[in-house]
């Protein structure tokens, strides 16, 4: 399987969203990553449904929505209505994670579970078989442009082992600090999906950067 690329809109120019999305539409990007923050689960606020509805009308790529909020289960129906392909919730934010995953599936979406850097892979032992993706945060969630946390590389290995052991089909997505130096190592370590925000949008030719990330040797 080739690496899937999910550009994070958080680092796009919000004054020129239409042309940023058109660039993504024309590029080799597989998905569009949308970061929803509530100022409670993470110390920052990003955007919500009015913005995502506008984006969904313009974007031709499947939407990969990453909720960094408390009570993401309150927004399952609204996210499905948006036409999202993937709804990803934080394990740390869900008291009844199994129920939330079931509800995401019942709403017709793929279900992803995100882990903060300090949350161990073993915490997914009893749910990994039921999820379509595990998102490993490789920075503390809340901001773009942070430094990559090295421990993520070996965490991918432990997650791959758990996925195999449990017979899960979950994809491994890595989010945070993905750039020129870390991306090749992440792909070699077994990442299936790379999220990239600041590195990608600040590069001279973002579409070319997307292609470069996509074709790294696995
Ligand atoms: C951070 C978000 C990321 C962010 C990544 O909390 O989940 O998706 O946009 O940004 P970079 O690629 O700049 O680290
Ligand atoms: Zn994200």
From TrEMBL:
Sites where the protein binds substrate: 8, 66, 142-145, 175-177, 197-198
The molecular function terms in GO held by this entry are: D-ribulose-phosphate 3-epimerase activity; metal ion binding
Q: What is its EC number?
A: 5.1.3.1
Going by the UniProt record, its keywords in alphabetical order are: Carbohydrate metabolism, Cobalt, Isomerase, Manganese, Metal-binding, Zinc
- Pfam families membership: Ribul_P_3_epim (PF00834)
Known pathway: Carbohydrate degradation
Q: Which GO terms describe its cellular component?
A: cytoplasm
Per UniProt, where does a divalent metal cation bind? 33, 35, 66, 175
Query: Can you supply a Gene Ontology BP term from the record?
Result: pentose-phosphate shunt
Q: Which domain of life is it from?
A: Bacteria
Instruction: List the catalysed reactions.
Output: D-ribulose 5-phosphate = D-xylulose 5-phosphate
Which residues does the entry assign to the active site, renumbered to this chain?
Answer: 35 (proton acceptor), 175 (proton donor)
- Top EC class for this record: isomerase
Co-factor requirement? a divalent metal cation; Co(2+); Zn(2+); Mn(2+)
**Cofactor comment text:** Binds 1 divalent metal cation per subunit.
Q: Which InterPro entries match?
A: Aldolase_TIM (IPR013785), Ribul_P_3_epim (IPR026019), Ribul_P_3_epim-like (IPR000056), RibuloseP-bd_barrel (IPR011060)
Family as reported in the entry's similarity comment: Belongs to the ribulose-phosphate 3-epimerase family.
NCBIfam families given in the database record: PRK05581.1-4 (NF004076), rpe (TIGR01163)
Q: What function is annotated for this protein?
A: Catalyzes the reversible epimerization of D-ribulose 5-phosphate to D-xylulose 5-phosphate.
Supply the name of the protein. Ribulose-phosphate 3-epimerase
UniProt gene name: rpe
């Amino acid at each position: 399987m080739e690496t899937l690329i999910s550009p994070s809109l958080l680092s796009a120019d919000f004054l020129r969203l239409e042309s940023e999305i058109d660039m993504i539409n024309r590029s080799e990007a597989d998905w569009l990553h949308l970061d929803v923050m509530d100022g409670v689960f993470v110390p920052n606020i990003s955007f919500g449904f009015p913005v995502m509805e506008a984006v969904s009308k313009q974007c031709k790529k499947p939407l990969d929505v990453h909720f960094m909020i408390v009570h993401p289960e309150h927004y399952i129906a609204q996210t499905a209505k948006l036409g999202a392909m993937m709804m990803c919730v934080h394990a740390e934010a869900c008291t009844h994670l199994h129920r939330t995953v079931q509800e995401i599936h019942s709403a017709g979406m793929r279900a992803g579970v995100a882990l903060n850097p300090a949350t161990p892979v073993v915490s997914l032992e009893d749910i990994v078989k039921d999820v379509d993706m595990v998102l490993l945060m490789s920075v503390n969630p809340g901001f773009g442009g942070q430094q990559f946390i090295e421990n993520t590389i070996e965490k991918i290995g432990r997650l791959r082992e758990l996925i195999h052991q449990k017979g899960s089909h979950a994809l491994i997505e890595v989010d945070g600090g993905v750039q020129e130096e870390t991306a090749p190592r992440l792909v070699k370590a077994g990442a299936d999906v790379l999220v990239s925000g600041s590195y990608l949008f600040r590069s001279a030719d973002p579409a070319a950067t997307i292609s470069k990330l996509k074709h790294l040797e696995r």
